[in-house]
Design goal:
The structure is a homotetramer. By secondary structure, chain A is an alpha+beta fold. Helix content of chain A is about 20%, strand content about 40%.
């Protein structure tokens, strides 16, 4: 991201969270980009993410998508909390696959945001979709007076 | 579990999966019990499972519940695959909390099973609910001729 | 229902709504019973409820289940509003089928209730399941001072 | 729609269903447009669609959205059946409101399609969202040899 003065509000919101999430760190989930109401995150499927069938565990795909859901919400500078998230599993992901989750806010209300996340592999093939509902607290995520996150 | 000859089919199905799931191992998810159409799993929230707010990451709660969903399906000796899973988040879980996920098959069809999972903490307070839909392949999970899992 | 003095709170709550819902009236949806946290409603599939395939329209099955969801919420004497409802369709219903929807509150919180509804036909075969989430306003549905509904 | 020879496959698919759905007829649900993977339907909220609060019954909004879900699926010339549909209610609709449901296929697979439907009122304000999952039978909806629907 660019100089502080050039950063968008979405980028500044994302920075308040980045580096503080142990699960993102452990799974190697990276934020590729963020803008107002949308985010792109990626994760490479490691051997430690496999289920008994040798495929990527659904919980790991969900975790990636849930993180993308959260960044989309945060990018709007609204404080809130995830209330609901539903995942459709489309096809398995294998060890070594690079998964990309693209989230976008489909409804942005004062009390509720609805978010869609599409997860694809490195060939652009769909792996899963997630639909999330967050409850907003009616106040900004960043305290504009000092740029601190209000949590 | 008891001697081989005394084990239920549900227990024999579960054994085919136990110890082969890297994610369960990494997160310390333990199978407490399994019976026909139901399972109980537990997980202790470790520091590495926390999100940027210092609470248990939703993806980790989902992973526990998803595992309970899978064991409930497997316990019926039906081969299948998770198609859909929706989680309602009720309250946060904290580091050190011991989460218990109890799954039960609410509809058992030849092609579709519907499963409910309730996740509680050590005080019996509800943390989350999951509703899952699996698509069944119309054949048993165990090959009865030799007791091997058919995958 | 019995004499006013003998009625349960659940019954008194339900009575505030009964007879005021035009859709229930038009579809012939009947409340069979209600108790704290649960309700049973029924509907006969009429010719006017059929889709282009000659089966009961999914929207009509949903409407029955949604009404059962609402009565389960109301029966707890909590004012609130339906936020989310998800339906799994299990098998078709035909003209003349008598559908019964049984709802039960699976989580009862101060701000959120989670409800499950099972819809069966006259042979006890499952037709659909609904999972609903209501947001509660933190006040009773009935005004206890005069028994009036607070809406 | 135009002359038979000029009609798109999506339009020809839709015509096989139009006029045969009693619920669409009773509720005055109209197909405004259909193209490959998308449809627009509308409905005016009548007095007979109101719930006990005097708002449009959630089941009626669902029915409109479910119809839009179905037309999006049909427009792809894939035979299939709705397996799951989840509705987020955003704000109430009032008597006289003209609701428009816009559906689009977000994932089109050989066995599964995932569809999003947005419902708005005459002021363009969002009323509800629906996410649907259909199971496809792996054969076309239209029999290309004679243009008849295969059901």
């Amino acid at each position: 991201m660019g100089k502080e003065s050039e950063k968008t509000i979405a980028e500044r919101c994302a920075e308040r969270v980045l580096g503080k999430d142990r699960v993102m760190e452990n799974l190697g989930i990276e934020l590729q980009s963020v803008q107002d109401g949308a985010a792109v995150l990626s994760m490479t499927v490691g051997a430690e993410m496999l289920n008994s069938q040798g495929n990527c565990h659904g919980g790991m795909i969900f975790t990636l998508a849930d993180a993308a859901f959260a960044f989309a919400c945060i990018s709007c500078n609204q404080a809130g909390i995830g209330a609901y998230a539903a995942m459709d599993f489309i096809r398995p992901a294998a060890e070594g696959d690079i998964l990309t989750a693209r989230s976008s806010v489909r409804h942005r209300g004062s009390t509720v945001s609805l978010v869609e996340v599409l997860v694809e592999n490195q060939d652009g093939r769909p792996i899963a979709q997630l639909h999330g509902r967050s409850h907003n607290f009616g106040r900004p995520f960043l305290d504009e007076s000092d740029g601190q996150a209000v949590t």
